[in-house]
Structure formats: structure tokens, C-alpha cells
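Notebook, p. 212. Picked up where the previous page left off. The plan for this session was modest: take the two constructs that came back from the sequencing core last week, fold each one, and keep the raw output in the notebook itself so nobody has to go hunting through shared drives later. Recording the first one now, exactly as returned: residue sequence, then the C-alpha cell string.
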Amino acid sequence: MGLTQTYILAIESSCDDTSAAILCNGKILSNVVANQKIHEEYGGVVPELASRAHQQNIVPVVHQALVRANIDKKQLSAIAFTRGPGLMGSLLVGTSFAKSLAVGLNIPLIEVNHMQAHILAHFIEEENYSKPSFPFLAMTISGGHTQIVRVDDYFQMTVLGETLDDAVGEAFDKSAKILGLPYPGGPLIDKYAKEGNPKAYLFTKPRVNGLNFSFSGLKTGILYFIQKKVKEDPDFIKNNLNDICASIQYTIVQILMDKIKKAVKETGIKQIAIGGGVSANSGIRNALKETEKKYGWSTYIPKFEYCTDNAAMIAIVGYLKYLEGNFTNETINVKARYSI
């Protein structure tokens, strides 16, 4: 008897990327993402425009995922979709499509928490990638979220700390905006930081109790600092861009590392898995690798395409829930706020 092939179609539409993936028994066969460039003109995601773009993208993206995976929709075992958290209009597009297709094909429907998916992306079957074992600490860092989570099993997670205001990705993007850099500015700060001196300028780290984060004060501090310097020298940003970016990045990375060190100390868990779009940042990756050597941690960073919003991470959660028979039905509603 051969192994039964379980094919999951996954749909992710929580923010401004429309994504569909096909997974077979834990392995990703296709992972298609349609980005929305329109938001660059506005310096941030416009919810109304995002949901309209999802409506245009969803059919071609799902079609492409099936074509690349080389399977027919009749072979699908179940459909997984992002229920939340995210933008209401965007979530509704993906959810409605998933419900309709599941009813049409008469196959199970599986709802997925976007934040759990970022964490469980580490369990996608990949060559040369070792998965974390339970328990481990997950740090999810993205444009919309900053969390430290204790993970005791696939669906047994405890949030130990989260941001009280801005997410870390917002701190990067808004700092970039202050410097006059285009949106999304986080990757540009990373790029210029590589050429700069991280200790050229000192920014105050916010004092926040426990394992929670706060980035709004840092952002205000950076704004006032730049305004003062530009008043003294109108060419300050242009002449010192690399050093400014390096100093901003260094401060943000230190804030994250201080909290994760505190979490390790409090829990005794030395396995650290990171995810979310900001985990692509070279400063964070380097700091984790250094800490791994220094303190004997084991650190896990998934492939870049599984860090940003993508349907592959939704697919792996769908597969794990499928194995448990954990299905939902078409009466389910989306949740803009949806805790782990």
C-alpha cells in the first residue's frame, strides 16, 4: 500500500498580498504570491484598495498554484484559509473564495490563525532544514505584529509578550519615512545600515515591563533627532544616511534581543524560532547567530519566502489540522483581531 496523498490548497489574504499554495503531505508543491504595488504611492497599505486587488488576483493566483503543482482541483483533499487576524475586507475575499470552492468540490474547509501559521512555517518539509522541537520560543516580527510565544505543541501556544503600540515592521517603515525613503522602507534601512556605523548615534530604548514591546517612543525620538539635525544642517540626512540607518537598525535589534534573552532566562528554553517579514532583516539574523554561539542557543529561521505573508505557511497548518480532523464549515466568520 502506497502512502495516501493529501493535497491541501491554502489561501492567504490577510493584508496586501494574495497568495495560494498547494501542499502534499507536508511538502510545498507551489507557493504563488501576487504583490500589490499600488500602496507604494500612499506610503502604506490602503484597506479599500487592498480588498479590490485581492478580488482581481485571487482566481489567477489559485489557478497558477494548481498549474505549478501539476494537479487538478478534483485531487484536492481540503482547503485552508486565513481567518484572521488582518484587514477585514482582505480576509473576506480569501474566506469567501475558500468557502465557495470547498462547497463546490464537497471537501473539508480548514480555518487558520495567521499568527500560528508564521510559527508553524518551521514545520514545512524542506531539505537541509532541521525543525525546532517542543518546547521552543517563537518570535514573530512583521509589519503588523511583534510577539514572543511559548510553543509547547502545534496548537498549544502561550503569548509571553507582545507590542503595546507599533509593530517592529512599522518602526522600520516609519523611521524610513522620516528619512524620506520610499515605502516599504524597512529593507532600505537594512541595505544602508550595512555601510554605516551602528554606534554613530544613540537612540533611547523604551523601558517596558516584562516581555512586552513598545516602539512608538523610539519612533518619536528618531523624528525629533532628525528634525533637530536637519535644522542645523539641511544636508544632514543625505551626508549621514548610512550611519543613521545603521544606528536605527542597531537600536531596534537590541530591543528585540534584550527581550528574547529575558524570555530564555525566564523559561529556560534555548530554542528560538523567528518568523514574519522582518526576520529577513540581516541585523536580526546576524544578532541571532552571534547569540546562538555565545549562549549555546539553537536558532531557526525559515526560508525567506516563508517569512513574509504567504500561503505555504497556511497550508502546513491546514495539513496539521487535517490530520486531526479539525474542520470548520461555511458559516464561519472572519476575525480582524484573532489571538493565538
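Okay, moving on. Second construct, recorded in the same format:
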Amino acid sequence: MPSFSPIRAVERAIDVLLALNRHPVSSLDLLHKQTGIPKPTLVRLLETLQSKGLVSHAPQYGAYSLASGAKTLSSGYHGEPRIVEASAQLADELTRKIKWPLAVAVPDYDAVIVRYSTIPNSPLALLHSTINMRLSLVGRALGRAYLAFCSAQESRALFDILKLSTHPEDVLAHDRRAIGAMLRQIRQQGYALRSPGIRPVSGTLAVPVFEGRRVVATIGMTWIASTLTNEQAVEKYLAPMQELSRGVSEKLATL
């Protein structure tokens, strides 16, 4: 619940924009009927939106319509924002059930970067936050799950980039045969685990998230190593993680 009362003027401005979006052109009468906003208030709202480049007005026809500036309202809504919107609620629900924290990561040049985390909902998290943490495509479970399931063309490009990396977690990228075998195993089993030598205090199990046939993100669950072996984590949590991945894919298709 919000901690304050909604700003009525903002609500009305959004109502007007939504109403304008339903028709190529709208009269003042039509907007009044659709929004219930008094006409004098409507005119002030429309003139304000017009001054911001969001609405155009043809006085000779008494018609209002959305202007090209309205496109900027959605220009930032793609890729990562969609992934977060599609995954946040579902990931939170799973963490409330299993208690372990989950992270949602997306590709970021030569790594993946965490864009959503359920750490605030987990009583078992080792870290206070992982938001914006960049993780190796080669050594980390979230990165491996992406690298294993991306397209062949993208994979080749990433290998070319990773060959130049001096990061210690990317060292396996210099052994094309070894990393190829690892990625084939991940594709076969449908999940990735973190390299054993990295942060042995914990483990991570990660699965890919697809939009259509294209992998767009990965979701990982992290646990305290002293409580579970890798095998136990996979046996107990792989199925709910894969179900979560499918749920996010389905949600993406509706956005």
C-alpha cells in the first residue's frame, strides 16, 4: 500500500493519456465521457500535455490526439525493465516458499549483471544486496547459464571477447575445448552451477529464461554450502526453478 495519498492531478493526466490512446483523435466531449473529468479541467490538462509535446490539438476540428512525444514515455520500457516486471513477483513468491534468495541477471557485454534480487525477502541471504553485481560468464552459474543457451552467433562473439579477458574467473575461456565441454553439459542438463573455486561458502543453481527461442536472462538460487551439496540443491530445487523460468517466459509474452 502507498504511504501517501495519490496526487489527483497526476492520476487525471494519466487518465487523459490513456483515453487519448484509445482513439486516433478524440473530441473534448468524448474525453469528458471517458474520464469523467470536468471540461474546464480537461482543457487545462490537455494544454499542459500539449506544452510538453505529448498531445497535439487541431482547433478547427476540436480534435485532440497523442503527439510523437508520447513515444518517449515508453522508450525506456524494453529489455531489462520487462524482465524485472515479468520476474519480480514470481521470484518473490518462490523465495517466500523456499527461503533461499534468488537473482535475475541479464547480459552486459562480457558478463551478466544482476537486475533483481529477492534478498530482502530471504532470511538466509549471505549478502545485503547483489543488485548491479557483474558476474563472469565463465565462472558464475548465472553467467554460464546464459553463455550455454545463447545463439551460436552470439556465443562466437562472446568467446572472442572473453579470450581477451584477464579476469581470473574467465580463465577457462582460454581453453576452447574445456569450455565447450562444460557448456554442452549445461545444455544437456538444463542448468548451471558456479565454479567450485569461487566463493565456496555458498553455491548457486541457475537456469535460463527464454523469450520465444532466445535466451534473455538467467535466474539463480544461492544457498549456504554447509547446508546443501550441489547434488542436493539440484534434486530439491531444480524443478521449482525451471517452473519459475517458464512462468517468467509466459509473463514476458503478455507484456
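Notes on construct two before I forget. The CA atoms of residues 203 and 223 lie 5 Å apart.
Flagging for discussion at group meeting.
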